[in-house]
Design brief:
With about 170 residues, the chain is of the alpha+beta class. Helix content is about 30%, strand content about 25%. The chain has a single domain, classed as Chitinase A, domain 3 (Roll). Strands 1, 2, 3, 4, 5, 6 and 7 form a seven-stranded antiparallel sheet that branches. The protein is globular, with a radius of gyration of 24 Å. Its EC number is 5.2.1.8. One of its GO terms (molecular function) is peptidyl-prolyl cis-trans isomerase activity. Keywords: Isomerase, Rotamase, Signal.
């Protein structure tokens, strides 16, 4: 009888240890670091170049590909901009878009008042009315090491943005 109880106890302990080792814990997940983000971004940019895209950078260091040239004025701080956009993680997963957030698929905002993420505002300054770009914003110019909402830490954000209208500020 003692042998049977001891066997059941040992079997129970091993079962518990085995099952708990199969659980998904935070330690098992891939965690982005600044170094991992840089490798992912370089790979992504290299793939764009391999497909024949020209990559430019803003003064701040935001990468972008001009999809369509505009023919209007360039955006200035204080201007009211109307844009359409889709935001993706570098793996292609969509996390936000103007289609999701508005009835007409457009968003209106005042440039740098209050500022959006630094990289977003910076890329707006290289767009003129009618332009469409794909912007790659490293986390240091977005949500950094903390992340925000569905955006994890050290996540490069990719936005496809079309600038529909610029209303100059009324200073």
């Amino acid at each position: 009888m003692k042998t049977k109880v001891l066997f059941m106890l040992i079997a129970g302990v091993f079962s518990t240890l085995f099952m708990s080792s199969c659980l998904d814990t935070d330690d098992d997940r891939d965690i982005n670091t600044a170094a991992i983000e840089k490798v992912k971004l370089k790979t992504y940019l290299d793939s764009l170049v391999a497909k024949g895209h020209d990559i430019d950078t803003t003064e701040m260091g935001i990468y972008y590909v001009r999809i369509e040239d505009g023919d209007g004025d360039f955006a200035q701080p204080g201007d009211t901009l109307t844009v359409g956009y889709a935001g993706y993680f570098i793996d292609g997963t969509i996390f936000d878009s103007s289609e999701i957030n508005s009835e007409d698929g457009k968003m209106e905002f005042v440039l740098e008042n209050p500022p959006f993420i630094a990289g977003w505002d910076d890329v707006m300054k290289v767009m003129n009315e009618g332009a469409k770009v794909q912007a790659m914003i490293p986390s240091e110019f977005a949500y950094g090491s903390e992340g925000y909402g569905v955006v994890p830490p050290y996540e490069t954000l990719v936005f496809v943005i079309e600038l529909f209208d610029i209303k100059p500020s009324q200073e």
